[in-house]
Amino acid sequence: MKKILTEWRETLDTLNETTYNRVRSKIEEEKIPFVVMSADRHDAPDNRARNKALKSAVQEAGYPFANVVGSWVEQDEAGNDVRVTENSIIIYDEERGDVGRQPGVMLFDLAKTLSAEFEQDAFIFGEPGASTGKMTINAFDPAGNPVDYGGPWTSLERIPNDANFWSRVRGSTFVFKEEKNVSGAETIEVDAPNSVIEAMIKANEHKGKKIKFVRKKKIDK
């Protein structure tokens, strides 16, 4: 997702607008540290339960969160475009008010623990730089190591909800803002990913190109 999750549309719904603006304000203006992560696994039958368990764990740790949906478009075995979605949450380094913060549980460490527990390839973490105050957003693996396919990003921008890839809060779709523009770039077909993080990896392998995800037919053995 330096070309793909680098990813968060304008909507007529006032509630959606307010929600998006709240997220953007927290990140770009208040510069509140945050995490975006998922508990979903591709084709897992219990993703709803996994998502509920993730949110319960975050609440118990004393952190507030909001629902986020990640999405990409892939071509199925019949050649039809299919939009795939992944449930995620954005967690803020703030007090909840209803549940006290667990002593010593830092947001970054919580993300590492939950990322490993729910078998995720990576999570997104953003915080202001100590010296510059500039927001820096990157992807990290469960061990807390930065990965070379996610970030750095500094802000959000709206995109149309029919775009190839986006994240969504309520009805507003957006991406983490990328600095390079790939308009007019060559479009190539790539095997469809099984998660947003995997989409980031595949995009990083084809920098400077537009990606079209294709779900290949399974070969019977």
Structure explained in plain terms:
The protein has four helices and ten strands. By secondary structure, it is of the alpha+beta class. It has one domain. Strands 1, 2, 3, 4, 5, 6, 7, 8, 9 and 10 form a ten-stranded mixed sheet that branches. The longest helix has 16 residues.
Summary keywords:
221 residues, alpha+beta, globular, disordered N terminus
The topology string of helices and strands comes to HEHEEHEEEEEEHE
Q: What is the general shape? A: globular
Residue runs with pLDDT of under 50 for 5 or more positions: 1-18, 179-183
* Mean pLDDT rating: 75
Helix content: 10-25%
List the total number of helices: 4
What does the radius of gyration come to?
Answer: 17 Å
Strand content of the residues, in percent? 25-35%
Q: How many DSSP E strands? A: 10
Largest sheet: 10 strands, mixed
The assigned structural class equals: alpha+beta
Number of domains: 1
First-last Cα distance: 33 Å
Which helices and strands, and how do they pair?
Elements: H1 14-29, E1 34-38, H2 47-60, E2 65-75, E3 81-92, H3 107-117, E4 123-128, E5 135-140, E6 156-158, E7 165-169, E8 172-176, E9 187-191, H4 196-204, E10 210-214
Parallel strand pairs: 2-10, 9-10
Antiparallel strand pairs: 1-3, 1-4, 2-3, 2-7, 4-5, 6-8, 7-8
Summarize the structure.
The protein is of the alpha+beta class and 221 residues long. The protein has helices at 14-29, 47-60, 107-117, 196-204; strands at residues 34-38, 65-75, 81-92, 123-128, 135-140, 156-158, 165-169, 172-176, 187-191, 210-214.
